[in-house]
TrEMBL record:
<keyword id="KW-0276">Fatty acid metabolism</keyword>
<dbReference type="Pfam" id="PF03061">
    <property type="entry name" value="4HBT"/>
</dbReference>
<feature type="domain" description="Thioesterase">
    <location>
        <begin position="130"/>
        <end position="202"/>
    </location>
</feature>
<keyword id="KW-0053">Apoptosis</keyword>
<keyword id="KW-0963">Cytoplasm</keyword>
<keyword id="KW-0472">Membrane</keyword>
<dbReference type="InterPro" id="IPR029069">
    <property type="entry name" value="HotDog_dom_sf"/>
</dbReference>
<comment type="similarity">
    <text>Belongs to the THEM4/THEM5 thioesterase family.</text>
</comment>
<dbReference type="InterPro" id="IPR006683">
    <property type="entry name" value="Thioestr_dom"/>
</dbReference>
<keyword id="KW-0378">Hydrolase</keyword>
<dbReference type="InterPro" id="IPR052365">
    <property type="entry name" value="THEM4/THEM5_acyl-CoA_thioest"/>
</dbReference>
<protein>
    <recommendedName>
        <fullName>Acyl-coenzyme A thioesterase THEM4</fullName>
        <ecNumber>3.1.2.2</ecNumber>
    </recommendedName>
</protein>
<keyword id="KW-0966">Cell projection</keyword>
<keyword id="KW-0443">Lipid metabolism</keyword>
<keyword id="KW-0809">Transit peptide</keyword>
<keyword id="KW-1003">Cell membrane</keyword>
Length: 225
């Protein structure tokens, strides 16, 4: 089995990672939300130098308090029967409520196995002035495309990701992401996705190929009927 396949098995099947119950996950999600606010404040602050130095000291002290009990690796959520393990990664950088760098994006699956998300990116994700960084759009789309592969019953790791940036993606407004699997061939799943601005303009289109790591079954990734 590949390194990635073995690692997924250790985490999702063998229970190597700490599992958080819902109340604990909610506590830590609240902490991450405060840190997102802090990140926004840091990016936009115009307080004077003495205040910057004082706040830096306080933040360093807070970091030391949190690091006083440190896990070796990010924890995951307890398994939910019938749900994909991918959703258990509470520190995922796109969807993870525990990860302050995640917007976070919440992905939903429709009965027809297509997926979508409604999300707003703040100016923290700015690339070209006034618009979202292309790498951030790629990150969101990669996750959404991966969720589409899962939803189709044919999950895997991103083997190829192709992006077409049609129009700049605005931040600070509600965006819609949509994705679906288009073809499943053996361990390979072909997928397509797009980001849509509030006026209906498709700003980014993406296609991706997901490959199930050798030696893993879709069931081992915990998803599908
Ligand atoms: C399950 C939760 C994952 C969701 C996470 C969100 C998305 C991610 O961030 S994943 C992280 C980024 N991706 C990676 O790190 C992947 C790194 N790559 C790898 O580990 C391997 O190349 C891996 C697992 C994708 C494929 O390895 P391996 O199983 O040895 O491939 P291999 O046997 O050569 O090929 C299998 C099939 O895939 C196809 N394939 C492999 N790579 C590609 C590619 N880049 N493009 C198109 N097809 C490909 C092959 O042609 C072959 O097809 P067929 O069976 O029809 O001949």
């Amino acid at each position: 089995m590949s390194g990635a396949g073995a690692a997924m098995r250790r985490v999702f099947v063998d229970g190597e990672r700490a599992e958080l119950d819902q109340p604990r996950a909610a506590e830590l999600a609240g902490l991450a939300a405060r840190v997102r606010e802090l990140t926004e404040a840091v990016v936009h602050t115009d307080v004077d130098a003495a205040e910057v130095a004082a706040v830096s000291e306080e933040i360093a002290a807070l970091t030391r308090r949190l690091a006083a009990a440190r896990r070796a690796a990010p924890p995951i959520a307890a398994p939910v029967p019938g749900a994909p393990h991918i959703g258990r990664q509470l520190a995922n950088p796109v969807t993870g409520p525990l990860n302050p760098i995640a917007p976070p994006v919440e992905i939903h699956t429709r009965p027809d196995r297509t997926v979508f998300c409604d999300f707003t990116l703040t100016s923290v994700y700015e690339g070209p002035p006034g618009f979202v960084h292309g790498g951030v759009s790629a990150m969101v789309l990669d996750q959404l495309l991966g969720a589409a592969a899962h939803a189709a019953g044919a999950p895997g790791m991103t083997a190829a990701l192709d992006l077409r940036y049609r129009r700049p993606t605005p931040y600070g407004v509600p965006l819609r992401g949509e994705a679906e699997a288009t073809e499943v061939v053996g361990r390979r799943t072909h997928t397509a996705a797009r980001i849509i601005a509030p006026d209906g303009t498709v700003t980014v289109e993406a296609t991706a190929v997901f490959v199930l790591p050798r030696g893993l079954t879709p069931e081992a990734l915990g998803n599908v009927e």
